[in-house]
Design a protein that fits this description.
7 helices, about 70% helix, globular
Amino acid sequence: VEPSQAALQLYLSMLWALQKSGVLAYENEKQPRASLVFRVATDLTLRAFSILSQRHSTPGTAELYVDFQTYRTLPALLRFLSSVMPSLNPCRWQEARDEAWWCTLSSCMQLISSLVLHHHVLAHEFVQENGLQLLA
């Protein structure tokens, strides 16, 4: 199934809602699969973005970065990272509980890097949201 801009907007709203709901906290034992849901939404967003960005490279088509700004995707991803990264111990990345979080973290980083690399407006937003300080 080829992704559409409407599907991309659905994935972006899922990311925003998951981050906003607070169920993604690393310590949240009541929602053990929250990281998996966030990872799926991140992976779907990344896939849709990669396909749609190729289609939208034609002059005169709508810019995809506007959807990412509208749904505040970079701030949501960065808030997720800032809430999870301090709790993860790199020495325990293969433990059952932590492995899912590390996979989600990796997927999140891949989406962030793709967005920042593909559009200067999103790169600027990344800097404004203190993304560089978070990763340092």
